[in-house]
């Protein structure tokens, strides 16, 4: 018997010295003596891509995360060498590549300070079980370095001292520190010495990040397969890092329809039709604004996707139309599991066309979900995505459904270890065939993409609305998301706040939580406090499992109903402000929610703050996050801020006590801000907006504000039919000047602005509009410091 002793466990392997260097335009290639190749691509002056192979050959360069619309180009690129390094210089960065072992160190090109350097750098371990490599990277943590991002991790904002895993997982009733959960976003932003950079590790295998947890001064990331392929993104502003990452992985493909930013009501499950109508009628009767009602899995025939229960919903088209007439858009759930049933057309067609995932040896991937035993479409196959998108024709075009939420798309499988597909399931991966080890983290993203394509097709000329539970980097291009099956506890209110901030920091702003908690039952106080937080999340929806009791705004008695109504009304008033923030996100990648560290990274007090956040550019909010509290301490960022309720001006850069009884919450407005508001509506489009209210907050100094508007749906805005108003406010001791500049061809329905002046330190003596004195009586100046004027003005002087 001959024993082969060649295959030995080698442990960590490292690149050796560079023996060859090549430059092809912006791609620099370094080959080591032992066959390792490092390819550095200069994508922009501030973005470098590092890609390693251990075999001398790179796989097909394909990524679901990187968008074809990402910006490219640089102003300067020079490669020199000295005794120890190859030196790559752009206008923003200097990158040294060591000649002995391919380790890199990156410096700011302006002041030559060190930003980021490899510790062991790239290393790998052969994976004997599956073939290929376990790929690893370690970097030296700089003094005082902090880390942020990584998607929906339910932990404090600052990730230092922690370790995480990226493997999209159905985590019912997850808790603080549960890891992994629903999303895999392998991107973080690091901050030290007032400078920020980001690292996006574009690898869809199960991956890990360690932020100085195992070794005190070392941060590392690694994956159980695939390539060491990461992007280095330099700021030095944190907001630039996030915006550039969002540009790289894709901004939303279109603005959301305005109604999607309204309040939504959901439960597992509203059925039959009479129950749905009862709920929607109650909203209108109690005058609580609401734009969307959701149907969970019970609307289907035996949980078969794309069917309706004849018993519960005998005439869905009529019902959906009647709901629409009352201002409600109908949203339905669609899961990936397709019931094994030869009498079910979707299953039969999928089977005939060979669209379902298979195991390594050929049989179909069979798993149990709500309908019982199911097969699962391979959404990584473009042909399957096309087929899937066409299945929405009846739901959307014929019946009139306005949105779809994709659930269970991790993919979740019941009653099996790991709660998902086995590793040996095969996927097309857009022609790059692979196992589930590689495709798992993108499965939900590709399902959401196919759903989005269907809704875009059949909702036209209106905009599509899709929500997904599972996501990988780049999913923000197609859909909104929620934070999964949370619990009705005070701690989960805090977790929801952290997750929404962290998702926004990870390029994905259109996110909210199940208000009130999905599992278990909140009391009225918790529900009211959660609504107060939820109205500041871009996606605003109450959702509950229904097993534990009712969770509608009126379920907790009149006192709570009144508080909830008050805050949902505030949400509707702030719609033009939120829509403007969304426009900035879709245009520039600027997050809608800003953790305090993202808002002001130069203030070290912000680096560990969790509760407070800036909504848009000018509003500071902080939830009351414990029972029986009549207020709370919170940190006010630098600058001066108006208390939203009292107009008292608070100086920032300090922690203060803020009173907040149950019908209030700490909200502040930055001085100098101009906040646009709509009248309260029961649903978007209920009223013709005949006047735009502008809340003007006086400051001695300058501030700029914007209002973006368009038709609120449809695609005309892409052709220039939008209205973007920029306001420049200049405050002096005895004068307030507001200049307006408008671009875009869209004509708003209102003709006038009503200015509501806050904190004016003088009595108005004279008003001048475009160099003309206007009699005060013509401006309807009231004793409450409001005045009405035509929207076309370019310069307004209010003189004391």
Automatic annotation (TrEMBL):
It comes from the Bacteria. Signal peptide: none annotated. Coiled coil: none annotated. Residues 254-581 form the Glycoside hydrolase family 31 TIM barrel domain. The keyword Hydrolase applies. Residues 691-759 form the DUF5110 domain. This is DUF4968 domain-containing protein. It comes from Hyunsoonleella flava.
């Amino acid at each position: 018997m001959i024993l082969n002793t060649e295959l030995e466990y080698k442990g960590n392997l490292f690149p050796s010295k560079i023996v060859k260097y090549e430059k092809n335009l912006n791609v620099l290639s370094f080959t080591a003596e032992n066959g390792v190749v490092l390819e550095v691509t200069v994508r922009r002056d501030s973005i470098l891509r590092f890609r390693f192979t251990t075999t001398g050959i790179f796989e097909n360069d394909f990524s679901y995360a990187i968008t074809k619309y990402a910006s490219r180009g640089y102003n300067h690129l020079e490669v020199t060498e000295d005794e120890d390094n190859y030196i790559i210089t752009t206008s923003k960065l200097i990158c040294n590549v060591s000649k002995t072992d391919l380790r890199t160190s990156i410096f700011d090109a302006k002041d030559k300070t060190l930003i980021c350097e490899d510790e062991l750098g790239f290393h790998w371990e052969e994976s004997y079980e599956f073939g290929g490599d376990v790929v690893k990277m370690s970097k030296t943590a700089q003094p005082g370095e902090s880390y942020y991002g990584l998607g929906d991790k339910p932990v404090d904002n600052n990730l230092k001292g922690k370790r995480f895993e990226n493997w999209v997982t159905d985590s019912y009733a997850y808790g603080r520190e549960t890891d992994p959960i629903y999303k895999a976003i392998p991107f973080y932003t690091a901050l030290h010495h007032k400078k920020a950079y980001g690292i996006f590790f574009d690898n869809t295998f199960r991956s890990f990040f360690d932020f100085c947890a195992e070794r005190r001064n070392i941060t590392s990331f690694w994956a159980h397969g695939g390539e060491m392929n990461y992007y280095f993104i330099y700021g030095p502003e944190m907001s630039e890092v996030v915006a550039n990452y969002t540009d790289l992985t894709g901004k939303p493909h279109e603005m959301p329809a305005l109604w999607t930013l309204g309040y939504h009501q959901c439960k597992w499950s509203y059925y039959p039709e009479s129950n749905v109508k009862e709920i929607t009628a109650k909203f209108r009767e109690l005058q609580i604004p609401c734009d969307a009602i959701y149907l969970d899995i019970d609307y289907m025939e035996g949980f078969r996707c794309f069917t309706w229960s004849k018993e519960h919903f005998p005439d869905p088209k009529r019902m959906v139309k009647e709901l629409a007439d009352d201002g409600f858009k109908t949203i339905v759930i669609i899961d990936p599991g397709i019931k094994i049933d030869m009498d079910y057309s979707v299953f039969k067609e999928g089977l005939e066309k060979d669209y379902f995932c298979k195991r390594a040896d050929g049989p179909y991937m069979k798993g149990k979900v709500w309908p019982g035993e199911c097969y699962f479409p391979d959404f990584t196959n473009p042909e399957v995505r096309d087929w899937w998108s066409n299945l929405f024709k009846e739901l959307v075009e014929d019946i009139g459904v306005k949105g779809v939420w994709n659930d269970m798309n991790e993919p979740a499988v019941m009653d099996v270890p790991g709660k998902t597909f086995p590793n040996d399931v095969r996927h097309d991966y857009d022609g790059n065939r692979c196992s589930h080890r590689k495709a798992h983290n993108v499965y939900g993203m590709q399902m959401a993409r196919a759903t989005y394509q269907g809704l875009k097709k059949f909702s036209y000329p209106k905009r599509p609305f899709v929500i997904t539970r599972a996501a990988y980097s780049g999913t923000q291009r197609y859909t909104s998301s929620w934070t999964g099956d949370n619990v009705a506890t005070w701690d989960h209110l805090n977790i929801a706040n952290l997750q929404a901030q962290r998702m926004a920091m990870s390029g994905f702003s259109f996110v909210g939580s199940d208000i009130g908690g999905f599992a278990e039952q909140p009391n009225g106080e918790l529900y009211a406090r959660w609504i107060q937080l939820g109205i500041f999340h871009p996606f605003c929806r109450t959702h509950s499992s229904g097993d534990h009791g009712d969770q509608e705004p009126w379920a907790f008695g009149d006192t709570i109903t009144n508080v909830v109504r008050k805050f949902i009304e505030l949400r509707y008033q702030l719609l033009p402000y939120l829509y403007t923030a969304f426009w900035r996100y879709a245009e520039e990648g600027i997050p809608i929610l800003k953790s305090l560290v993202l808002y002001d990274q130069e203030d070290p007090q912000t680096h560990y703050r969790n509760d407070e956040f800036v909504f848009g550019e000018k509003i500071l909010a902080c939830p009351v996050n414990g029972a029986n509290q009549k207020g709370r301490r919170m940190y006010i960022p630098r600058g001066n801020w108006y208390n939203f309720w009292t107009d008292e001006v608070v100086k920032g850069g300090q922690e203060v006590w803020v009173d907040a009884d149950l019908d209030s919450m700490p909200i502040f407005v930055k001085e100098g801000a101009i906040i646009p508001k709509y009248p309260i509506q029961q649903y978007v489009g209920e009223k013709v907006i005949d006047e735009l209210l502008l809340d003007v907050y006086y400051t001695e100094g300058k501030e700029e504000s914007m209002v973006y508007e368009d038709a609120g749906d449809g695609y005309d805005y892409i052709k220039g039919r939008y209205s973007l108003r920029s306001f420049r406010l200049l405050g002096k001791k005895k004068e307030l000047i507001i200049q307006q500049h408008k671009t875009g061809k869209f004509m708003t329905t209102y003709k006038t602005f009503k200015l509501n002046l806050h904190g004016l330190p003088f009595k108005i003596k004279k008003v001048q509009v475009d160099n003309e004195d206007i009699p005060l009586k013509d401006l309807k100046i009231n004793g409450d410091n409001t005045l009405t004027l035509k929207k076309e003005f370019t310069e307004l002087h209010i003189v004391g």
